[in-house]
Amino acid sequence: MNxxxxxxxxxxxxxxxxSNYVLLKTTLSDSQPFPEIKSGQFAExxxxxxxxxxxxxxxxxxxxxxxxxxxxxLIHLVGEGTRKLALLKPKETINAVLPLGNGFTIPxxxxxxxxxxxxxxxxxxxxxxxxxxxxxxxxxxxxLLGARSKKDLLLLDMFALFGxxxxxxxxxxxxxxxxxxxxxxxxxxxxDQVYCCGPKPMMVSVAKYAQANHIACxxxxxxxxxxGVGACLCCVENTHEGHLCVCKDGPVFKIEQLLWQI
Length: 262
Prior knowledge:
seven-stranded mixed β-sheet, globular, 262 residues, alpha/beta, 16% helix
């Protein structure tokens, strides 16, 4: 298990993507050791000047640049805590506990693996760094990203740096109309590794696709979390291995572990 840090991150840039999402780019000072971060892990970010926000907010680690000492967070504005984080300006600091949880598995037989990374909504966040990591290991990932409409799709230009990008929208405003599991690429290409993060109904559908086609599949669960270290038990998931804390034992699980009746 890699070492956890409590560190201050300095905001480099706050990018407004749309009315519901911002991208916070942060950096460490030169004196701070850069944490060993696995794709799929997350951070607990402290929210300052928010009397109603008592707990840190769990946010997926979106992207890591070791050379620049940068860590990015894709923030979905859903409550007072995340909205306060979205107001941070360059040179302001965020106190973070990271990296937390277990990340995605990188296949050992890299030359023979054709991975597809499937995401929806803010669930696309951990897939960006995973795509970069897979490419660095000699694989070419395929991204399949779904949203309600064109305006809800996130970071498409960044994903395109690391692999082929396919899109579905429910209203047909970009890509193929429908849900990710209905995209024609799933019938045209034989994939042998699936990674997925997004709303639970979407992940269950992806898991059914993977199981039906005998493809290894890992999903990143988005259960509500508080402590981030398995102490408060509010994110417990019932699995074939018993009740597991998503924040500590996940958030990434193999679909065989889960009781999704797939």
